[in-house]
Amino acid sequence: MSKVIECVPNFSEGSDMEIIRRITDQVESVEGVKLLDVDPGKATNRTVVTFVGSPESVVEAAFQAVKMASEIIDMSRHSGEHPRFGATDVCPLVPVSGITMEETVGYARLLAERIGNEIGIPVYCYENAALSEGRRNLASVRSGEYEGLKEKLSDAAWKPDFGPAEFVPRTGAIAVGARDFLVAYNINLNTTSTRRANAIAFDVRERGRAKREGNPVTGKIVKDQDGLPVMVPGSLKEVKAIGWFIEEYGVAQISMNLTNISVTPVHVAFDEVCRRADARGIRVTGSELVGLVPLHAMLEAGRHFLKKQNRSTGVSDSELIKIAVKSMGLDELGAFDPDEKIIEYQLRKGRSRELVDMTLRGFVVETASELPAPGGGSVSAYMGAMGAALATMVANLSSHKRGWDDRWEEFSDWADRGKAIQELLLQLVDEDTRAFNEIIAAFGLPKKSTEEKTARKASIEAATLNAIEVPFRVMNISFEGFQVAEAMADIGNPNSVSDAGVGALALYACIEGAWLNVKINAAGMKSHTRVKEILDAGSVLLKSAEETKKRILATVNEKIES
Q: Which of 4, 182, 214, 412 is the most exposed place for a label (fewest CB within 10 A)?
């Protein structure tokens, strides 16, 4: 899975759209970044910008936006209702897919250091990117706001993590952080009572409700030694919630902020609200996602609801999303369009068409054209994906076979494995063509001067090595598919054993085809250390693949003929 992060910088300007446009233009000027949302607020005099992309691209876009803001926003003239201490007040990075929080922290600190060194703004790292525990909380970092910043910077205890320890009147300071993805999520109820909706919200939100003496509704609030209410925590961690009435729809809702969906995913919040609402005689009728959601959140939800039905989860992403939408009623108040609501799908919009997005006929026609790519490498990867898909199909059929109900989870696990292999091989269909195009581009580099010749030679070698690595990865991933095909030949639905056999044949064809591509690309680099390793390992893998294919086919033929 490609690495995707989100950036949500807050700029201290909410009225002048020309200033906001000049900042967002910087974001959109960076390749590999997609601007998702621009939300200006006049009362707060603050604009929240949201964009996503590859980590390197997002860091570059964030830096350019912060730089522009430092040039066109004057904090000495700023006022607004929201706490702030800089032209770019906060700039959090958020892991979306294919990347860990630890990696995201690294990118946040890299961005912070660059802002401090190159723009000369005092930078504090907060939340997960904090360099000390006392700076994790944004409120602490921003305490005193812009008006108290000069005095704060004179205190050695508040020396910035990066940049000058001096007051810059025009720009103020900036907090750069890494935090978890926040999902705004509303759950619809079959009541118009805000009070009842609030009661459910207090049941589930982490903060809970104030403890009372005697009657839990009308009793006197219990207070601690500091005079503050003693709280009884709710059932869901990392969740903020409140009940309200939506006049447009004529129903009450539980409005929730899921501040860490790795702790409380969307589907967990939905099920818990259903349980708590039912206990109060209220029914959940549906829900809505406000803004965007990461793909993995929808896929996890789909798998969760399929598991509750004792059904295989090794189905397509589109099917998992459909199950999630219907299970949580995400389309009750309006259509749920995955291309509009899922971050990764938003990111791919406007991107050049890939081979795997073509129809089967379109892919065949493209391959048959006079163009040298797609070629044998892409076709090999596609054959492997089809082989894994057949093995996955047998697993799914076995999971639903009458009389095998107690084995659904066993086959669902196999289907999940097969689907993962299939998805990786599909990615490599396009990766192989890109690798070939990189070689062509490298050979097209200028070679007049000594420096150009040296650079061209290095580029050709790097591109060729990548063109060897890609089909070698295809071989290894396809070989993993044999495990699923062999298991399905051994224990899967006997009526589909021939499909497991065809799957094994396709996987082997993929491996042998990819091996041919490894060898032809390695022809001029056999003395290279890494190429030697690949050729040795590939030769062993091919032999093992042939033995495995024969073993699977022997099982298949034995079952067919028995």
A: 214
CB 535 within 8 A of CB 526: yes
Own/partner contacts of 367-374, CB < 8 Å, gap of 24 or more, are: 372/436, 373/433, 373/436, 373/437, 374/429, 374/432, 374/433
- Residues 144-180 as b/e (b if ≥16 CB within 10 A, e otherwise) read bebeebeebbeeeebebbbbbeebbeebbbbbbbbbb
Cα angle for residues 72, 74, 80 (degrees, 5° grid): 115
Which of 16, 39, 78, 82 is catalytic? The answer is 82
Which residue, 322, 334, 327, 248, is CA-closest to 290? 334
In the chain, the number of structural domains is 3
- Does 403 share its domain with 549? yes
Terminal-residue alpha carbon distance, the chain: 43
Whether the CB-CB separation of 243 and 265 falls below 8 Å is answered with no
Handedness of CA 424, 429, 435, 438 (dihedral sign): negative
Q: How far apart are CA 460 and CA 439, in angstroms?
A: 6
Whether the predicted pLDDT of 150 surpasses 70: yes
CA distance 183 to 127: 17
- The domain boundary, picked from 295, 320, 348, lies at 348
Per the CB < 8 A criterion, the answer to whether 284 and 188 are in contact is yes
pLDDT in tens, 182-216: 898 999 999 999 999 999 999 999 999 988 888 87
Q: Which amino acid is at 541?
A: L
Question: What is the sign of the dihedral through the CA atoms of 487, 492, 497 and 502?
Answer: negative
Q: Which of 203, 271, 416, 432 is catalytic?
A: 432
Q: Is 267 noted as a catalytic residue in this protein?
A: no
Q: By CB neighbour count within 10 A (0-12 exposed, 13-18 middle, 19+ buried), where does 132 fall?
A: exposed
Residue 152 tokens read as 């704060």
For residue 477, the SS3 value is helix
The per-residue pLDDT for range 415-438, each reduced to its tens digit, is 999 999 999 999 999 999 999 999
Q: What is the CA radius of gyration of the chain?
A: 28
Question: Active site includes 499?
Answer: no
Residue whose token pair is 């206990």 = 279
Length of the chain equals 562
What is the C-alpha to C-alpha distance for residues 493 and 556, in angstroms, rounded to an integer?
12
Show which of 178, 209, 225 is a domain's final residue: 178
Does residue 343 share a domain with residue 461? no
